[in-house]
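In response to reviewer comment 3 from the previous cycle, which asked for concrete evidence that the modeling workflow produces usable outputs, we include below a single protein chain processed end to end. The sequence was submitted unchanged, and the resulting structure tokens are shown without manual editing.
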Amino acid sequence: MSILERIADALDHLDEGTADMVRTALEEGEDPLAIIEKGIVVGIRRCGDKLAAYEYGVPELLVAGELAKDCVRVVRPHLDPGASPTKATVVIATVQGDIHELGKNLVSLLLELNGYAVVDLGVDVGPMTIIDKAEAADADVIGLSSLMVTTMPAQEEVIAYLRDLGVRERYRVVVGGAPTSQEWADSIGADGWAEDAQATVALLDSLCGEGERR
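The workflow returned the following structure tokens.
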């Protein structure tokens, strides 16, 4: 088993020594991007698969997320800024009235690991704050998370504000969260919907193409 496979396996098994394996891989001359793509990303995806299969619960996924962040912190200083161009800039938030963040945090992490610049605004964020931050970041994508049926209308509100301000076409708006669906996304005029973090990466890869704006 290669060191990259061992990193993926360690993260998958929530091994507290995963970051040390990453350090070892760097010392052995492994490519930092390969460590991310073939080690950390593979491991965190396996954890997501285990959550979907009910083999892991929320506590395990929280641990996996923190371990992955630790690994990324180890690798980041070794990355060549020009080696992996940013695909797109994503502003992501849990909408106003909703304080759930596990799903959003996993989406943010996986997007970052897959080459996106992510501005995570946190939870319970108002529509104008989201729009202002998207403008300030020169964002390509606005991601809106809602984990409660009662806060789903806040996703629609952000899109309505964008239209009222005449800036809707500047951004690709994607929505997600347990109570949401493709039908909901279509009904509010979103550009896409994803059921989980891995699907979000695939969705943005499809929407953003080579990162050019619409």
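Residues 9 and 90 are 29 Å apart (CA to CA). We consider this sufficient to address the reviewer's concern, and the full set will be provided in the supplementary archive.
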